[in-house]
Amino acid sequence: MAEYFNRIAHHYDAWYETKTGRYVDKTEKWLVFSMLRSRKGKALDLGCGTGNYTVELYKRGFDVIGFDASEKMLEIARRKLPDVKFIKGDAYKLPFPDESFDVVLSVTMFEFIHQPEKVVNEIYRILKPGGEALIGTMNGKSLWFIFKRIKSIFVETAYRYARFYTPQELETLLKDSGFIEVESAGVIFLPSFWPFPSLAERIDKRYYKKCKSLAAFIAVKGVKR
What we know:
Blueprint: H1 2-15, H2 19-35, E1 42-46, H3 52-59, E2 63-68, H4 71-80, E3 85-88, E4 101-107, H5 116-126, E5 127-138, H6 143-154, H7 167-176, E6 180-187, H8 197-207, E7 217-223
Parallel strand pairs: 1-2, 1-4, 2-3, 4-5
Antiparallel strand pairs: 5-7, 6-7
C-alpha cells in the first residue's frame, strides 16, 4: 500500500481542492473535532498522509507529530508544516514510549491495514491514561462507498485495496483493547453529485448520531483507562 500511495500522492492531495473534496473535508473535520474533548496536548496523526489533519491539529494548538508509511505523502506534508516532525514508519510497531500522547488521531488509515487489533493495541500503549483515540474510516455499508467499490473494479483506486468497517466493528476494536467511553458517529449521507450543499450540511449535523450506520464516513472515539 505504501507503494500505491507513493504513486498517487499529488493526486490525493489535489482532491481536497475539488468541490466535493472541500465539502467532505469540512464536514468530516466538524465531526472529528466535535467528538474530541481534548483541546491541547501532545497529539499523533497516525497515517497522516499529506498532512491534512496534521495541519488542523497544529492550527488548534496541539504539539503534533505526523506518522505515515508513504515517503511521497510525507514529502508533501513536510512542505506544509516545516516545523512539525514527520516520521516514516510501521503502524504495527510505533517508535514511541508508553504513555507518550494525549491524543492519537487516525483518519482513513485503518482501511488499508491487515491487523487492526495490533495497531489499536499500539495506540492504547502510547496514550497517557485518560488520553483519547479517534479512528475515522469509510463505512462499508454506505451507498457512497458501495458505488466507489464497484467503480474500483474497472478503474484502479484506493478503494480496490480497502477494508471497510461499520460503526459497531470500530467500537468493538476499541473496547477489546481496553478503551472506555467508546462512542461512534457518522456524516456524509448524500452522494457527491448532490447539488445543494447547505441542505446536505443540515442533514449531516442533524443525523450524525441517529443514522451513523448509513453515513459514508464514520468515526469512533475511546478513552484510555
